[in-house]
Specification:
With 273 residues, the chain is an alpha/beta fold. The protein has helices at 2-19, 46-54, 72-77, 112-120, 122-125, 139-148, 158-161, 187-193, 241-269, and strands at residues 26-31, 38-41, 59-67, 90-95, 99-108, 128-133, 152-153, 156-157, 162-164, 171-176, 179-186, 206-211, 218-219, 226-230. Helices cover 35% and strands 27% of the residues. Helix 4 runs parallel beside helix 9 (241-269).
Length: 273
């Protein structure tokens, strides 16, 4: 009986340690991908594509298939650019009654590599940090993009540094200034629905949204735990040297804001003896 209790306590301790239930807070970054990590350019604009490549941007042609049974909403949206702003930057390769094959040309934001590596560095001295890609767009397309994006983080592919979270886990609709059904993202919903590899996100953990959403479209659970970091969206058409320098400076400032936010509350939680 004593041995059984010892073994049980051992597994409880291990589980708590793995899933962040031992009182040590963790940091979860809700990272949007469109206009945050990358931008899409209109297919056929070969002059812009060549210009970007000559200036050192990473430009990729990516092809994915969305199935009607899995993503009926996006199956239809991709065929109607008037209903989906992103559809104007997509090339439809094939359509049948079950699936649609789409090509997009993705351009990676130059400053995003340093920004993500800076977030990952928080693991070394500050707090366990995990990056969750949280996009309201098509789950199938987002997973494909993550798996194939030519972005190296700390010597490893982008997909090794992040975890994809389906839109159902964080997307909500709210009423803003009398307008109903406005899409928003929710740290509350994420804590409730996240079923990923890092275990449940607890009330003790921090959640930071990196996106273009205003504060009223990010639903927080606790203002001392959740932070909205709205950043300027990346546009591949604005590719001059001045824009690149300004963008890098903004992401550097955003990284400082996240560090200060977390450290300030960690100090409050753990006062000096």
């Amino acid at each position: 009986m004593k041995l059984f209790l010892i073994v049980t306590l051992f597994f409880v301790c291990v589980t708590r340690s793995l899933f962040g239930c031992n009182g040590d807070p963790r940091l979860f970054i809700m990272l949007d991908i469109d206009n945050t990590v990358m931008d899409r350019i209109v297919p056929g604009n070969t002059l812009l594509e060549k210009t970007l490549e000559q200036e050192g941007y990473t430009v990729q042609h990516l092809t994915f298939t969305t199935y009607k049974a899995v993503s009926p909403k996006f199956y239809h949206l991709y065929q109607d650019p008037q209903q989906d702003i992103f559809a104007t930057k997509l090339k439809i390769l094939a359509v049948d009654i079950d699936a649609i094959v789409v090509e997009e040309i993705s351009v990676i934001r130059p400053a995003i590599k340093t920004f993500i590596e800076g977030l990952m560095a928080l693991n070394n001295h500050t707090i366990a940090t995990y990056i969750l890609v949280c996009s309201r767009n098509d789950n199938t397309r987002n997973q494909h993009l993550i798996d194939h994006l030519d972005l190296i983080i700390n010597g490893k592919p982008f997909k090794s540094a992040v975890e994809f979270v389906p839109r159902e886990a964080f997307r909500v609709e709210i009423t803003v200034e009398g307008e109903p059904n406005v899409p928003a993202k929710s740290a509350v919903a994420l804590r409730e629905h996240y079923k990923g590899i890092h275990g449940p996100i607890t009330a003790n953990d921090y959640v930071v949204l990196v996106d273009q959403l205003p504060d009223n479209r990010f639903i927080v659970q606790d203002v001392t735990r959740d932070l909205n970091l709205p950043i300027t969206g990346f546009e591949a058409t604005a590719h001059g040297a001045t824009e690149r320098m300004r963008d890098a400076a903004e992401l550097d400032a955003g990284l400082v804001t996240i560090r200060r936010f977390v450290k300030a509350h960690l100090i409050v939680e753990k006062p000096a003896a």
